[in-house]
Amino acid sequence: MVNRGQPSRDCLPCRKRKLRCDLLPEGCGQCRRARLQCHGYRDPLDLVFRDETRSAAQKVVGRQNWTLVAHPVAMELGWNIRARYAFFSVYVFDFSHSLGSVAPLYENASASDHLSASLEATSLAFMAIQLHTPALMHLASLSYLTAIRKLGQAINEVSKFGAEEILQSILLLDMYEKMVNRKPQGSSSWISHANGGMSLLGPRVQQFTSSLTGLQLSARLITALTVSSGAMAVRVPDGLLALRSDLDPFINTPKWSFTGILAHVVNLQADDRDAGGDGSIDLAERAERLDNELRNLQTALPQSWRPQHISPMRPDPLIFNSHYDIYLDHYVTQVTNGIRAVRLILNNIMLRHTPVSVSNSDSESDIIIRIRYITHQICATVPQFILPEAQPDNTGGQQTPVAPDKKP
Questions:
Q1: Backbone conformation region of residue 315, classed left if phi is above 0, alpha if psi is from -120 to 50, else beta
Q2: Is 356 helix (H, G, I), strand (E, B) or coil?
Q3: Where is each Zn(2)-C6 fungal-type domain found (predicted)?
Q4: Extents of the domains making up the chain
């Protein structure tokens, strides 16, 4: 409160005109003589206290040439909170089916430990890329350094009860590297975190396979390392296939089966690059064998993964050929198209490495027809995500919600 003396009891017109009000009970004489409408006198109770704090603060700030927002529209949330909320709502709970372990582990994590720091770095990078904001990417890089430091301390003190949280942080930082660095070949950062996860998982396979969360994290690590090796055009690490065999009895999903074949395709691609034209027959035969395995996997997919074929009555420029397919969800579409994309790679290897003496026009045309057919299948998956009549969510643009996070 600011003491500005006893407030005047005069009526408003007299105060504005700076006249002495006669305070007559029947009405102000000054207003009557000036033919002004008198609104009466001030309530004595209102004169006892008057809060001038806001007015005084505005004057002080004004003298310092600052801008004061007297009535803020809403509370401003920090970018780390908004990014974390967006990452969970858009990516963890909606887009991805492989991050189910993040939420329960983060729920029990301290706000100052390595998992919270890793999640903050990854979510800030996610938001920075979505909004194309370099300033946010700078914040993400600072959080990344903090997460690396805290994770290093946790690894040195790892115990039986902290391994899952550490592996989750490793996978989040691996995701950070893939979002920030878009040139995998020749970049060790694309695989460094996954290799660290292998060192953590290897001696603790039995511990990780004893819980559902541990199995989910192990499967994600194997998948991340396989995909990273393929993107870098190198063979998968020697211990990866052995780890897969340890996990096979506990995991039986279409994606797990697909990534198992994918590991051999990655090795085939690396051998293809290193062969320099030698061993063409062997490469073509390996490619054909792996393509047959993927084709059999497609045939054995669950019935719920089968698409619904839609043939519109009228042609649409967004539909390739005369129909499109609607799948159960984005995850099913992603895995199915992943199988098809790898089959395209294998058929291309077969087309390039089948010797002229062995090949004939029929076999070459079969490969070309197969490539065209697989390509058409991939094109048929696109309209379900862009046609307004295909899904209700396609009628408008998706907005990223921003709301408070329950953790400080």
A1: beta
A2: coil
A3: 10-38
A4: 12-63, 85-247, 252-395
Over residues 315-337, the pLDDT tens digits come to 888 888 889 999 999 899 999 99
Alpha-carbon distances, residue 284 vs 55, 152, 202, 294, 339 (angstroms)? 82, 44, 33, 15, 18
Q: For 76, how many CA atoms within 13 A lie in the half-sphere containing its CB?
A: 5
**What are the phi and psi torsion angles at 181 (to 5°)?**
-105, 105
Angle between helices 361-379 and 330-353 (to 10 degrees): 160
| Confidence grade of residue 301 (pLDDT, cut at 50, 70, 90) | very high
Interacting residues of 339 by C-beta distance below 8 A, sequence separation 6+:
258, 294, 297, 298
Q: How many CA atoms lie within 13 A of 37 on its CB side?
A: 1
Residue 208 contacts residue 155 (beta carbons within 8 Å): no
**How confident is the model over 358-386, as a mean pLDDT?**
86
Question: pLDDT tens for residues 76-130?
Answer: 778 888 988 888 888 787 777 777 788 888 888 888 899 999 999 999 999 999 8
- What is the full DSSP assignment across 156-223? HT--TTTHHHHHHHHHHHHHHHHHH----TT-THHHHHHHHHHHHHGGGHHHHTTSHHHHHHHHHHHH
Assign 309 to helix, strand or coil.
strand
- 238 neighbors 225 (Cβ within 8 angstroms): no
* pTM for this prediction: 0.74
- Residue 116 CA: distances (Å) to CA of 92, 346, 398: 15, 41, 27
What is the CATH code for 12-63?
4.10.240
